[in-house]
Every structure is written in structure tokens, then in C-alpha cells.
Design brief:
Blueprint (H helix, E strand, L loop, with lengths): L1 E5 L5 E4 L3 E5 L17 E9 L4 E7 L3 E8 L1 E6 L4 E5 L2 E6 L4 E7 L6 E8 L9 E6 L10 E5 L7 E2 L5 E7 L4 E4 L7 E8 L2 E3 L2 E3 L4 E5 L4 E5 L3 E8 L4
Parallel strand pairs: 13-14
Antiparallel strand pairs: 1-20, 2-3, 3-4, 4-11, 5-10, 6-9, 6-11, 7-8, 7-10, 9-12, 13-15, 15-22, 16-21, 17-20, 17-22, 18-19, 18-21
Length: 237
């Protein structure tokens, strides 16, 4: 097993007033040559958007883009004709493919929204742009993994154009969850949303992360009540 530790305190940070964002990987004006990507995982931004703020219409291509609201809701519009709200408990995915334009605004005029914006390099390029979202029952991730994104639609998650999986888990203090990559050779980027855990002898607190690869299985032990996101991705294209 090989691991890499990314403490929350070393993330990139920008604050534009309407947007307060922390970057796990190089993004925008922040560049760290040691943190450009983890395998096919390119972006993990922890965004807080103030009431009434948001990202205006802008383009993307050839990227799988996942949004996970942690608090509040987003108003989404895109060039596929989709117009709707993504609430806490929902997960959104866009295959930018040959090209898509979208906007994401805080659906509240007064309260902040906090969401994770995650980009994964696609398996196939220039596919037809697509959008999907799904509401998940958070009780189904208590002391177990809930698959919310997967290339295998039988797992119940949103389909992604990559041999990847996203799993969310809420773990009671003292409990352990094992994680086994579905595809041999895949790595896992484990991001702690809340609480603290121990993985491979390393203690992680809120917003800390660790990349784990060259292993068939690892365990996550909650040191206190914790919520974690596991992002499984191929390590090479």
C-alpha cells in the first residue's frame, strides 16, 4: 500500500467575497506541482457561495463534473435544457463531452451554500453532453458505503464516463469500514467531510485527505463520529 497525505491546511484558498473556495488540487491562480491530480481525479474544490451568488454561464468540455451539496441548495441551468435545484442529499453529474455550458447559483438569497465540486478526466472523449442528478437517503450510508457515482449502474449511483466510483459513509466513533477498489489498479482519494478517522496509521481531521493506491483493500476507522467521501479512480489513462 502506498499513501499520500493532503492536510486541509495546505489546500489552495481564494476568497472573492461571494465565493470562499479551498482547492485540493491546482486550480485557477493556485498552482502546486505536487498537487495537480490524483490519477484521473483532477479537481476537488470545497466551495462556499454566499446568498444570491454563483457561477454564471460558462463552458466545459471533456470532463466528468460531480457536485455534492453539503449544506444548502444550488440552482442549476445548462445548455442541455436542464433547469432545476440540487439540494443537500442530492448528487449531480455532468458529462461535458463535446461541450456544455452551465451556471450554478445559490438558490437562497440569504444563506450560504457549501458544496464539493469534483472533476474527473473522462474515459471516452467528445461524447454527447449529458446531465443527471439523484436524491440519496443519507440513512443508507450509516456505518456503510453508499455508492453515489459509478460506471456500473447496478450499484445504484449516477453513471460516470470513467472506471470510477464515489462512495459516501457516515461512521460512528470506534467503528471501521473496509473499502475495496472495484477495479484492480484503481486508487482511492479519501476526503474527510467531518469528524476524524485513521487510515493506514495516519489520523485525518475535517477536510484532510489521503490518496491510497497499490492495495486491494484498506480500512477507515472513525476516531469520533465522521463523514467521509471515497473517490475511486484509475491511476493512469
Amino acid at each position: 500500500m502506498k499513501t499520500i497525505f493532503h492536510p486541509a491546511s495546505e489546500r489552495g484558498h481564494v476568497n472573492f467575497g461571494w465565493l470562499d473556495s479551498h482547492h485540493s488540487f491546482s486550480f485557477g491562480h493556485w498552482y502546486d506541482p505536487e498537487k495537480v491530480h490524483f490519477g484521473m481525479l483532477r479537481v476537488l474544490n470545497d466551495d462556499i457561495v454566499e446568498g444570491g451568488g454563483g457561477f454564471g454561464l460558462h463552458p466545459h468540455d471533456n470532463m466528468e463534473i460531480v457536485s455534492i451539496p453539503l449544506k444548502g441548495a444550488l440552482q442549476h441551468k445548462d445548455s442541455t435544457g436542464t433547469d432545476g435545484v440540487i439540494n443537500t442529499g442530492d448528487v449531480q453529474i455532468m458529462s461535458a463531452g463535446s461541450g456544455i455550458k452551465h451556471s450554478e447559483f445559490n438558490s437562497s438569497k440569504t444563506d450560504d451554500v457549501n458544496f464539493l465540486q469534483i472533476w474527473v478526466f473522462p474515459k471516452k472523449r467528445n461524447i454527447e453532453p449529458r446531465y443527471d442528478q439523484k436524491t440519496f437517503d443519507v440513512k443508507d450510508r450509516q456505518n456503510k458505503w453508499q455508492i453515489v457515482v459509478s460506471a456500473d449502474e447496478k450499484e445504484g449511483g449516477l453513471w460516470i464516463n470513467q472506471d470510477a466510483r464515489f462512495a459516501l459513509g457516515k461512521i460512528d466513533a470506534g467503528k471501521e469500514l473496509d473499502f475495496a477498489p472495484k477495479i484492480k489498479g484503481n486508487g482511492v482519494y479519501l476526503f474527510v467531510i467531518d469528524g476524524s478517522v485513521e487510515v493506514a496509521g495516519t489520523k485525518l481531521g475535517p477536510r484532510d485527505a489521503t490518496g491510497i493506491y497499490d492495495t486491494d483493500r484498506f480500512s477507515v476507522k472513525a476516531l469520533d463520529k465522521a463523514e467521509v467521501l471515497a473517490i475511486e479512480v484509475p491511476m493512469t489513462a
